[in-house]
Design a protein that fits this description.
The chain is of the alpha+beta class. The chain has nine helices and 20 strands. Bound molecules: adenosine-5'-triphosphate (ATP) and magnesium ion.
Length: about 375
């Protein structure tokens, strides 16, 4: 991407509904051309944040800037922004073409120009030739694309998408994901998308923001969010994770040791930790970063980067779920803690190797745990 140029800036934005701070002191910058995803549990303030940006709600405190200009006094229809709503209401009594043209009619765009732009927008979302149909003559995915075309036809600089794919089945969702991505690259419009589907956010976005209870928790690239979460909340919200509470027992420049009551062995890390010795912290290990080995003897598999007696533990498989490409397991270790493990099904016979009740070794690399201080 070329040099990042801010297009949207939230400056200490708060929105209160009565006593509730639906959005709480959010500061955030989105750059031109970005595909930005906003993630968080239901009710955390995502829609409210977008509605303020679009101009449908007024911040209680703080400012929103577009291209460096405070838009407090700019009405929604004068902002270079269009929103595809959470319930992507298309007008059922109008044809597809009329639905798409609606905003242009409101703006009094001349008919010839309008027709040309509607055709162009329908083509962008691959609905060529379907302009004469009514929404109820379309599939769910096609209706979704009508809503998109209706927003795109206005040529906004920023497109806000609130759960744009939530009404679709898994297969169509995946297909629309790819289409959204291609579309965004093609039109070069800045996309801000709200989703509570983390896979969707990771797959599509150049950067993601995670919110909780109105507060921005972390803003990062999908990769950083997943591999370097800043808190237990983010680690747990994005993907699956095993969290071990413990204390910092050793902290050197090139390694550290965490002692966790749930684990019969120490957690060895191949890097130092910025925390006080004896301080409580959490080690977060993703299920796919834990190796599963058949337990044929008393010596755990040696991953070569941790001293003996660390980062490997025996357990019994108590639960398994076959997902096709991979399987997930819950392995109970001494003391009763269950650890989630995910494993690719590398051969067609993998299932036979790791069955319910099987005793196994679990082990992980010294670089695998993320250390969290909050
Ligand atoms: N107009 C309103 N009046 C009062 N409270 C509101 C209003 N709009 C939203 N809220 C409250 O503000 C909080 C944030 O709502 P918001 O719609 O932004 O959540 P969300 O993150 O979009 O959730 P979801 O994922 O369920 O769509 C919720 O507690 C909601 O009940
Ligand atoms: Mg919402």
């Amino acid at each position: 991407m070329s040099q990042a140029k801010p297009i949207i800036t939230f400056e200490n934005v708060t929105k209160r509904f009565g006593k509730l701070a639906a959005v709480d002191d959010v500061s955030l910058t989105v750059n031109e051309g970005e595909f930005f995803a906003l993630l968080g549990p239901s009710g955390c303030g995502k829609t409210t944040l977008l509605r303020m940006l679009a101009g449908f709600e007024v911040p209680t405190e703080g400012r929103i800037l577009i291209d460096g200009q405070d838009v407090s006094n700019t009405p929604p229809n004068k902002r270079p922004i269009n929103m595809v709503f959470q319930s992507y209401a298309v007008f059922p009594h109008m044809t597809v073409a009329d639905n798409v043209a609606y905003g242009l009619v409101v703006d009094k765009v001349a008919k010839a120009e309008r027709d040309r732009r509607v055709e162009e927008a329908l083509s962008l979302v691959q609905l060529d030739g379907l302009g004469g149909r009514k929404p109820d003559q379309l599939s769910g995915g096609q209706r979704q694309r009508v809503a998109l075309a209706r927003a795109l036809v206005k040529r906004p600089r920023v497109l806000l998408l609130d759960e744009p794919l939530s009404a679709l089945d898994a297969k169509l969702r995946a297909q629309m994901r790819t289409e959204l991505c291609t579309l965004q690259e093609k039109v070069g419009i800045t996309f801000i998308m709200v989703t509570h589907d983390q896979d969707e956010a990771l797959a599509l976005a150049s950067r993601c923001a995670v919110m909780n209870k109105g507060v921005l928790q972390q803003v990062a690239s999908p990769n950083d969010l997943y591999e370097f979460p800043s808190s237990r909340f983010v680690a747990d919200f994005i993907g699956q994770v095993n969290l071990f509470e413990g204390v910092l027992a050793v902290d050197e420049q090139d390694h550290a040791v965490i002692r966790a009551p749930d684990l019969p062995v120490d957690l060895f890390l191949d890097h130092g930790v910025t925390g006080a010795r004896g301080a409580t912290l959490w080690a977060a290990i993703r299920p796919e970063k834990i190796e599963l080995h058949k337990k044929t003897g008393e010596t755990p598999p040696n991953l070569g980067d941790a001293p003996a007696g660390t980062n490997a533990v025996a357990g019994v498989i108590r639960h398994e779920a076959y997902l096709g490409g991979s399987s997930t397991y819950e392995v109970e270790i001494a003391g009763g803690r269950r650890i989630k493990v995910q494993r690719s099904n590398l051969t067609r016979w993998d299932q036979e190797d790791f069955a319910l009740g099987e005793t196994v070794w679990l082990c992980w690399h010294a670089c695998s745990p993320a250390v969290l201080l909050s």
